[in-house]
Each structure stands twice: as structure tokens, then as C-alpha cells.
Write a structure and sequence with these properties.
- The complex is a heterotrimer of chains A (about 325), B (about 475) and C (about 280).
- Chain A is mainly α and about 325 residues long.
- Chain A has one domain: MetI-like fold, CATH 1.10.3720.
- Chain A has 13 helices and two strands; from the N terminus they run ααββααααααααααα.
- Chain C is built from eleven helices and no strands.
- The chains are: A mainly alpha (about 325), B alpha+beta (about 475), C mainly alpha (about 280).
- At the A-C interface, helix 1, helix 3, helix 4, helix 5 and helix 7 of A face helix 1, helix 3, helix 4, helix 5 and helix 6 of C.
Chain lengths: ~325, ~475, ~280
């Protein structure tokens, strides 16, 4: 009798416990739905007013309620891709250096240092970009390029210090730790057996890296790059500080431009009605784009590899390293 | 495995230690800092620094007496200091612990004494004798003196009150100063939070009633007025500001003369070089370089842009039809955006041939070349606090609800604006209502904002504006009763 | 022979390029920290950390109330997010194949990609507008949403690391699911859970937009959670965009304090993780 009662008692508690964890999981889903619902509700008037022309026209005129997002879309894609062009060789090179060339005992502290920088808040990167990088670019490299290569449209001056190039470089620096950390984990996940077999055949380190390690870890590295791209596209504060904030299609690397996130930051404080709705429509688009990129990236990074379990924990931490706050 | 975990730990400890160690010298310096003396929110500085002797802060005699509005005389023969403020007389004898306040004998811990050639007197004794209160802030090594006239004399509410407000960023520095001062003169204290979130967000906050009142550089739109009904949002003018036209022309300092037409042509992209005949004609004495004009504008939406485009719309029909006025507009031609006043100022000073518009305070602080604008009377006027106030002396719009750009006053600078406090006419909370009215009355009507305003390059309202503010404040009601007493 | 030399030369070139890449990357990142440090250290001292901000033109002043506001809101955020997210992670761990688990995992990933300004906007409309007050509480709620994905995802991974052999042994000994979770899985994963929370805290401490939209800012000491409060990122944002040199200097000082706090948290988390790894 007593036995049975205890069993049923613990049964209810078990039920309650399950119920609580169930509610918590449900809460997470509800939260995301709630946020999504709110944003789309507020973005709806702008979508009703402009529809697809929002994505195909390039006039952004809050005074006359005309909103076309092309300059912001182009600025976003351009800066993010340029950032990746700069960051990819640097971060993959760093990852190879850290995981294949350094002795074991130096590897961890150094890669930890790099990962640590992913946690620096983005407003700090922005401050540095504005006060240190921009003046240097204006008078140094920028001056040189516009003076000597200015006949090429992409290097056309004047070099103002802020613009597409500066924000791409700041973004490159910001995504560098993320890409380095994840691709480092992926490279380290390549089975030791494969490496040793190559070395045994008399291959140089370079050959091992280019013929075995890079091909094996390619999906993971692509995933890392996509995660970096997602971060670059969604970044707001740092970009706003260095991009020059002009709602124009940039005609050169030195021209001021605008990204979706920086446009929201710039105009949100004074926006009303349709203008506000147009900004939220941008936020919704941004949300969908970063979501898509993150899903594709996750698919690449999570693809089962033969030696998955060994690196599971470390790669998890690499992925979860906080990104700086906007 | 073990090895690198240890290494990581060692590294971590090192990073932590390095951070701490680097902070240490800065901390050690804290106590070596000199004492500062703040009277009613302003720092008092003499030629001899205040010193602590036997636990008492000693301060140059003349500095403290005169700052508190007392006259002071020194009798060399008797070595006697006599200070007088109203009917209070203080007599101190150098080197003696005995003093007299209003005929009554008092014993001091520290006598008046000479330090590095100056007669120093005990600060607390003198200040308190003259009715002021003295507080010692150990953390900042600061003595805060509140004079009798500034003491906590206002009690709009019966218990300590906090109010959330916010809005325009243009008057933010002034408002932070005002709310700190106001908290010091109220008992129980009224603590006002003002967040610099922009005029638009300020208006949104007011309409949603998350802000008790809001600062704004732009009046409400018709739709917003409709949203507020049946209640009404009052636009109480607070201070005015000038928007300076700044430029970067090598070899040319301040004083480039511009007419409204010339400025409009420049921003419309019709005049593209500095040596254009239309500009040369206005400035026969200047050698204008053959430089392209680079237009700089605000990238964020701002009240400064509103005032600037409001002015251009009033002086140029083409501007009015092509561009219009607003906190962000679609600029004709190629422009470069700078975020905030500082951003525009930075762009202009970096690009030879650039022209831009910034608030006067920024132009002054960044030491930029400013244009003298031709006003409606035909005079070329440099932007200044006085020329800004002058613009509102004769307002065509007596309601003070529009910016007094392009004023008809002969000595007025033409590109000026008003910044408002937006307040509900019918208040829904008595304590908030009393504190709001008392704060604005203290700041605007009793003119307590004026010394801070001019210091920060804001222009005080002319008499007419203050009267308008008073009339508006008097119409504020709670439960059908006027709040103003 | 020539072929081998060529291979070696190419390899050397390649390695030099890798070293160069690493050198550039590490140097740039070190430069950023150097500047924050150099500009910040000039203003940081004891009184800067403990006093209220002063208006323009008044000497002294510091970040005391912003520091407390940030600590409080981040703490509050953790207090809300930790139980909910770990409970959620337990659900994911216990019912890995259920439909809700799939949705929740997806939702968490989505949440980690949402621009933080949107999170602030959500809390603003749901909490600030409804109560009519900006408050430290609303700021804490916004930060808890920012922390949620990091805590949930890390907790799930950490719980999963508790070997299934141990779980089965526990169940075989007659323990209920609940007992297994509380006596075996949670203690086993405790270290890892703490690390996840610390990383989430570091992330939340650097957020500007969600806090500005919900907790606003303040120039006074906080005496109740229902009041608006100052915080470090908002103070940096306001001061950095002001034209006044003393405020800009204070922005660098506050940035140094913020970066130091975040880095120390991360280092501690990594050390903990190292200890856990070693114990295994």
C-alpha cells in the first residue's frame, strides 16, 4: 500500500517536473514567435505601401514618405563581402598557424587570446575605427590609392577616411576572431590518422595542409565564413560610426554608404508612422537574412564528420563565444 | 593535457593581474589630487589652492567672501579681516582663534593665516556664518558650498520624486546641468532623468506617457496633435540655438559672407566651386581658392537639419518645392553625411573645400571658420548668442511654435531655432504636475538657466518668449485646477 | 631533386604567409586593446568608479551609478534567464527527439540571430509601454532575452556530455527521471553550466540598444528596481557622441572598465572549462 502511494506521489512530482521543463521550452518558442509577430505587425504598413518596390527602388526620402532600400541593401552586401575577402585569408591563415604549426603548449593560450577578442563589445571596435583607423586610412593608404589609382572608378577619391573601405575593414577585424576560432576547431577535428599517413608518405607540411586538411575541413570552414558573414551583416553600432551614412549607391571604395542596420540606428530615434514602419521592415529583412545565413552555416558546421565526438565540446564553445553588443 | 591547462590558468591570472596592476597607479593618484571647491555647482578657483590644515579646509579670504557676495576689508594695522554681507558682519584676526559673527564671539579650530603670501580663512566657518551650507565629498575631494540664496528653498512635492523624461539631444548638456542644480535646490528632492534619445523618440515617449515631459527641437505634426486629443501638448520654449555655416577654405578664416540665395544655390548643387562669381562678388576682399565645394550634412535625423532646411525653405522657393524641411531630407546632389554635430564638424575640418552646418557650440569649440549670413534687413551677421536671442525679439509667430528663422530684426542671425519642452495641458499625476511646473518655472521664468545656457552657447529667450512660457505654464491643470500657484 | 627543393620552397613560402596572417591578425587585435587601455587608464581611478556623473563643465564625476546599474540589470537578467533556460535545456536533453525540442532548438538559434535592437523594441512595447515606466526591471528582462540563446544552447551541450552509461545506471538503480536530473546530470554538468552563464553575462554586459530602450538612463543613484537606471554601454554611447572633451574621456574610461569586466569573465569561464576538462 505504502509502496504504491509513494510511487504515485513521485509520479505526480515527476509529472510536475516534466511540465515545468516543458513550459520552459515552450516559453522559448513563444518568445521568438512573439518577437517575430511584433516586428512583422509593425513592418506591415510599409510592406502594404511599397511591396516589392521597397526592394527595387533606391530613393529613401522620409519627408515625402518614399522608401526604397536598394542603397542600404547594396551597402550591406558590399561591406560584408569585402569584410570576408579581407578576413578569410587572415583568419584561415591564423587558424592554420595556430593549429598546425604551433607546438601544442603554445596553441591553446594563443588561440584563447584570439577567441577572447570576439567578446569585445562592438561599440569599442567602432570607437577604434573612428578615432584610429579612419584618420590613418584617410591620409595614408587612402591618399595613396586615390592619388595613383584614382582613374579606376573603385578607387575614385576623395579619400574621406570613412566610407565603404573603412567599415569593411572594421567588420573584417570584428569577424576575424569568430572565423579563426571555428575554423581552428574544424581543422583540429581532421583525424590524426589521415595526417600521419600523409607524413609517412613523405609529404611536406604544406602538402598535408593543402591536400588533406583543407579539403577535409572545407565544409566547416565555409560554415565559419558564413557565420562571420551573418555577424557582419547584422552589425549596427560599429558600422554606423565609420560608414559615412549616405543613402546613396557607393561608387567607390572611399564613398560614404549605408547599411540596413546603420540606417535603422541613424533614423530610428526620429522616425514616425510610415517611416518607422519602413525601418522595421528593414529590421524584419535583416532578421530573415541573418536567420537564413545562420541556418545554412549551422548546417555546414554541424555536418557529421568521422571524428565528431572528439571535438564536440570545444567546437561548441567556439560557436557560442559571445558577439559584442550592439 | 595538464600542461596546457596550467598554461591557460597562468595566462588568465596574468591577464587579471595586469589589469589590476595597471589600475593601481591611477588609484594611488586619487588622494594626491588637490581639493576643489564647488559653489552652487561652479568650481571656485583662486591663485592659491585650498589646503587642509588640522582637518579644516582653508581658502583664500577674498575668494570665498566675494563669491558669497560679501564685501571684505583688510586692516593692516590690527591684522583684522572684516567681511560684510547684508546685516551680517564677520571679524577675523590673523593668527587668532577668536572671531566675531554679528557681534557674537566664536572660537575657531584654525585661525586665519598666511599661506604662500595669501591670507587663508576657514571655509566652513565663513560660509556657514553667511548662511551657506557646506558638504565634504570624500570620493571627489570636493567641498560643495550651497549659498543661502541657492539653498533648498523649493518644495513642490511632499516626498522625494523621480520623473523620467527625454528627447532632443541638442539641449541635453544644458538639461543635465539644470536637473542636477534643480535637485540641489528642492527639498524633498525632485530627481529628473533626461535621456538623450532624439526629438522623435521624445514625442513618442510623451504620447505613450512613458515620459512625464519631453524635449523636442521640432513641433508636433498635425497627426501627432490629433493623437493627443482631447488633451493638448503644450510647446514651452526653453532656449534658442544658432546653426552655424562652417567651411574649410585654406587661407580663408571666419567671415566669408553669404546671402540666403548663395547658400541655397550651394546646397542645391547649382554653385559647385568656391571661386564661383556669385561668391566672389559677395567677398571682394577674400582670395577664394579654385576648389570644388563638398557638401556635408547630418546623417542622423536631427533638429539641426530641421532648422537648417526650414531656413532654406523660407528663403528659396526652389528648395521648398524640391526638398522641403524636415529632420531628415532627401538632399539634392552629392553630400557626405556625418553622424551628429561632431561628425559634421570632423568631416568639414578634414576635407578642404567642405561646407557644413553645425550648432554654434560645436563651431566655437572646434574653432571652425563660420560664415556671416545676410539677414532679412541686409546685414551680414556672425552667429552668436546675442544675435540668436535678437532673432526672437520680434516674432512674427507670437506663439513661439515655429523656429524664428530669417528674422526681420536688423541685428538677428537668420538660422536659429527654439528648443521646446512638451508638456500635457491636463496632467494625470499631481506630484508630477507640481514638479514639472515648478522645474520649468525655476529654469525659464526665474531665469536660473541663463548662466548655464550662455556658458554652453545656448541663447536665452527674449522677454517675450519668457512671457509666452509663463502663460503656457499657467494653463497647466491637474483635476481641473491650475497647478501654477 | 629539383622537385623536392621546389616543394620545400613552396612549403616555406606557405608557412611564412600563415605566420604573417597570424601576426597581422594578432597585432591588429592587440592594437585595439592597447588604445582602449591607453585612453581609458588616464581617467579611471577610485573616485571615477564610485561617483555620480557630473554635468558638462563641472569637474570630477564618474560612472558609479552606471556600474551599479549594469551589474544589477545583468544580474537580474541572469536570475530570470538561468532557471528558465536550464529548465528548457533539461527538456531538450530529456526529450531530444520530440517535436517541441526541435522547435525550441530552432527558436533558440533564431533568437541568437535577432538584432539586439529588436529585442529592446519588443520589451519596450510589452513592458515599458504597458507599465508606463522605464525601469531597471525592464532592462533586466531585455538582457535575459539576450542571454537566453547562449545559456540554452550551452546548457544543452553540457547536459548531453553526461555519459548515457551513468544515466542508465542511475535509472537502473530505481531513481526517477527527476532524481537522475537533480542528483546526477545537473551536478555532473554544473561547471559547464556556470561557464555558459558567464559567457552570457559577458555578452549582456556589452549591450547598448536593448538597455537604452528599456532602462533609459539616469544621473542619480538607483534606489528601486522600478526606476530608470544608468548603465555602462549607454553611458559610453551618450558620452562618445557628445562634443565635450571631458565626456569623451569618460567614455574611454567606461569602455576600459567594461572591456576589463568582460575579459575577466571570459578568462574565468575558460579557466573553469579547463579545470572541468582536466577532471574528466
Amino acid at each position: 500500500m505504502q509502496e504504491i502511494r509513494r510511487a504515485s506521489y513521485s509520479g505526480t512530482r515527476e509529472g510536475l517536473f516534466h511540465y515545468i521543463t516543458f513550459l520552459a521550452a515552450l516559453g522559448l518558442v513563444a518568445l521568438v514567435l512573439g518577437i517575430f509577430f511584433l516586428v512583422t505587425m509593425q513592418a506591415a504598413p510599409a510592406w502594404r505601401a511599397f511591396g516589392f518596390s521597397f526592394l527595387t527602388t533606391s530613393i529613401w526620402d522620409p519627408m515625402h514618405n518614399e522608401f526604397g532600400a536598394v542603397p542600404a541593401l547594396v551597402g550591406t552586401v558590399l561591406t560584408a563581402i569585402l569584410a570576408l575577402v579581407v578576413a578569410t585569408p587572415l583568419s584561415v591563415g591564423t587558424a592554420i598557424f595556430l593549429s598546425e604549426m604551433l607546438p601544442q603548449r603554445l596553441r591553446r593560450p594563443l588561440s584563447f587570446m584570439v577567441e577572447l577578442l570576439a567578446a569585445v563589445p562592438s561599440v569599442v571596435y567602432g570607437l577604434w575605427g573612428l578615432f584610429v583607423l579612419a584618420p590613418w586610412l584617410r591620409t595614408g593608404v587612402g591618399q595613396f590609392l586615390t592619388d595613383h589609382l584614382g582613374f579606376l572608378p573603385i578607387f575614385a577619391g576623395p579619400s574621406l577616411g570613412i566610407g565603404v573601405l573603412t567599415s569593411s575593414l572594421v567588420l573584417a577585424i570584428m569577424v576575424l576572431p569568430t572565423i579563426t576560432a571555428i575554423s581552428g576547431e574544424v581543422i583540429r577535428g581532421v583525424p590524426t590518422g589521415l595526417r600521419e599517413a600523409m607524413y609517412a608518405l613523405g609529404a611536406t607540411r604544406w602538402e598535408v595542409i593543402t591536400r588533406v586538411i583543407l579539403p577535409t575541413s572545407k565544409p566547416g570552414i565555409v560554415g565559419a565564413l558564413l557565420l562571420g558573414l551573418g555577424r557582419a551583416i547584422g552589425e549596427a553600432i560599429a558600422v554606423t560610426m565609420v560608414i559615412g551614412n549616405a543613402n546613396l549607391l557607393p561608387r567607390s571604395l572611399f564613398a560614404p554608404a549605408q547599411t540596413m542596420a546603420s540606417l535603422i540606428v541613424n533614423e530610428f530615434p526620429e522616425a514616425f508612422d510610415l517611416h518607422l514602419s519602413a525601418l522595421l521592415l528593414l529590421a524584419a529583412l535583416l532578421f530573415l537574412i541573418t536567420l537564413a545565413i545562420n541556418i545554412i552555416a549551422a548546417w555546414f558546421v554541424h555536418r557529421p564528420s568521422p571524428d565528431a565526438t572528439a571535438t564536440d565540446k570545444e567546437s561548441v564553445w567556439a560557436r557560442l563565444l559571445p558577439k559584442g553588443g550592439g | 593535457m595538464k600542461k596546457y591547462a596550467l598554461l591557460t590558468r597562468a595566462l588568465a591570472v596574468f591577464v587579471c593581474l595586469a589589469t589590476l596592476v595597471s589600475l593601481l597607479p591611477a588609484m594611488a593618484q586619487a588622494d594626491a589630487r588637490p581639493i576643489s571647491i564647488v559653489l552652487d555647482g561652479r568650481e571656485l578657483r583662486g591663485d592659491v589652492a585650498p589646503q587642509i590644515i588640522g582637518g579644516r579646509t582653508m581658502i583664500p579670504l577674498r575668494l570665498i567672501f566675494e563669491a558669497l557676495g560679501a564685501t571684505v576689508t583688510w586692516d593692516e594695522a590690527t591684522q583684522t579681516v572684516t567681511g560684510q554681507q547684508g546685516n551680517i558682519t564677520i571679524i577675523l584676526v590673523r593668527g587668532s582663534r577668536n572671531a566675531t559673527v554679528g557681534g557674537r564671539a566664536v572660537t575657531l579650530d584654525q585661525p586665519a593665516q598666511i599661506i604662500t603670501g595669501r591670507t587663508m580663512v576657514p571655509l566652513r566657518f565663513v560660509a556657514e556664518s553667511l548662511g551657506a551650507t557646506v558638504e565634504w565629498d570624500e570620493a571627489q575631494r570636493t567641498v560643495r558650498v550651497t549659498s543661502a540664496t541657492q539653498a533648498r528653498t523649493r518644495s513642490p512635492v511632499t516626498s522625494e520624486l523621480r520623473m523620467a523624461t527625454g528627447g532632443a539631444s541638442f539641449p541635453f548638456p544644458l538639461y543635465t546641468r539644470l536637473i542636477t542644480e534643480y535637485a540641489a535646490v528642492t527639498s524633498p528632492r525632485v530627481l529628473i532623468e533626461y535621456a538623450s534619445v532624439g526629438s522623435g523618440a521624445g514625442i513618442r515617449g510623451l504620447l505613450a506617457r512613458t515620459f512625464v515631459f519631453a524635449g523636442s527641437d521640432a513641433p508636433l505634426t498635425t497627426e501627432q496633435h490629433a493623437q493627443a486629443r482631447p488633451n493638448e501638448v503644450l510647446h514651452i520654449p526653453v532656449v534658442m540655438g544658432a546653426v552655424a555655416v562652417v567651411y574649410n577654405l585654406p587661407g580663408v578664416g571666419s567671415g566669408l559672407r553669404l546671402t540666403p540665395g548663395a547658400l541655397a544655390d550651394i546646397y542645391l548643387g547649382r554653385v559647385t566651386r568656391w571661386n564661383d562669381p556669385s561668391i566672389r562678388l559677395l567677398n571682394p576682399t577674400l582670395t577664394l581658392p579654385d576648389l570644388a565645394i563638398t557638401l556635408v550634412r547630418r546623417s542622423d535625423s536631427s533638429g539641426t537639419t530641421f532648422i537648417f532646411t526650414n531656413y532654406l525653405s523660407r528663403v528659396s522657393t526652389q528648395w521648398r518645392s524640391d526638398v522641403g524641411e524636415g529632420t531628415t531630407v532627401r538632399w539634392p546632389g552629392t553630400t557626405i553625411g556625418g553622424a551628429g554635430n561632431a561628425g559634421v564638424a570632423a568631416q568639414v575640418s578634414q576635407i578642404p573645400g567642405a561646407v557644413g552646418y553645425v550648432e554654434l557650440a560645436h563651431a566655437v569649440r572646434a574653432n571652425m571658420s563660420v560664415a556671416h549670413m545676410q539677414n532679412r534687413a541686409g546685414n551680414f551677421v556672425p552667429p552668436s548668442v546675442e544675435a540668436t536671442t535678437a532673432a526672437a525679439v520680434i516674432m512674427e509667430d507670437a506663439s513661439f511654435m515655429t523656429h524664428p528663422t530669417n528674422s526681420i530684426a536688423h541685428n538677428a542671425y537668420p538660422i536659429v531655432g527654439i528648443t521646446w519642452m512638451l508638456v500635457w495641458r491636463d496632467q494625470d499625476n499631481e506630484a508630477n504636475a507640481r514638479a514639472t511646473v515648478d522645474f520649468l518655472r525655476w529654469a525659464i521664468i526665474e531665469r536660473n538657466l541663463e548662466p548655464f545656457a550662455t556658458e554652453l552657447h545656448y541663447a536665452p529667450l527674449p522677454e517675450t518668449g519668457i512671457n509666452r512660457a509663463r502663460r503656457l505654464l499657467q494653463t497647466i491643470t491637474f483635476g481641473g485646477q491650475p497647478v501654477w500657484r | 631533386m629539383k622537385n623536392i627543393q621546389k616543394r620545400k620552397a613552396l612549403g616555406a613560402l606557405f608557412e611564412v604567409l600563415c605566420v604573417l596572417a597570424a601576426g597581422v591578425a594578432i597585432m591588429v587585435l592587440a592594437l585595439i586593446l592597447y588604445y582602449v587601455f591607453r585612453r581609458g587608464v588616464a581617467v579611471v581611478n577610485f573616485s571615477f568608479l564610485t561617483s555620480l556623473p557630473t554635468p558638462v563643465g563641472v569637474a570630477g564625476g564618474g560612472i558609479g551609478n552606471a556600474l551599479i546599474g549594469s551589474l544589477l540589470m545583468v544580474g537580474l537578467g541572469a536570475l530570470i534567464a538561468v532557471p528558465v533556460c536550464i529548465a528548457g535545456a533539461i527538456y531538450l536533453d530529456q526529450n531530444p527527439a520530440s517535436k517541441l525540442a526541435a522547435y525550441a532548438r530552432f527558436a533558440t538559434r533564431v533568437l541568437s540571430g535577432i538584432p539586439s535592437m529588436v529585442v529592446g523594441l519588443f520589451v519596450f512595447s510589452q513592458l515599458v509601454l504597458r507599465t508606463g515606466h522605464y525601469s531597471a526591471l525592464a532592462g533586466g528582462v531585455a538582457l535575459s532575452i539576450v542571454m537566453a540563446p547562449v545559456i540554452t544552447l550551452s546548457a544543452e551541450e553540457m547536459l548531453r556530455l553526461v555519459p548515457s552509461s551513468q544515466r542508465e545506471a542511475s535509472m537502473a538503480l530505481g531513481a526517477t527521471k527527476q532524481q537522475t536530473v537533480f542528483r546526477l546530470i545537473l551536478p555532473g554538468a554544473a561547471g559547464g553550466l556556470i561557464v555558459g552563464v558567464m559567457l552570457a553575462v559577458a555578452l549582456a554586459a556589452g549591450q547598448t540598444a536593448p538597455v537604452l530602450l528599456t532602462a533609459l538612463t539616469s544621473r542619480f543613484w538607483l534606489t528601486s528596481l522600478a526606476q530608470p537606471t544608468a548603465s555602462l554601454p549607454v553611458l559610453i554611447y551618450h558620452y562618445a557622441t557628445s562634443p565635450f572633451a571631458d565626456w569623451q574621456a569618460h567614455a574611454w574610461g567606461a569602455a576600459l572598465v567594461l572591456v576589463a569586466v568582460i575579459l575577466v569573465l571570459n578568462v574565468t569561464a575558460q579557466v573553469l572549462l579547463g579545470l572541468i576538462n582536466r577532471r574528466r
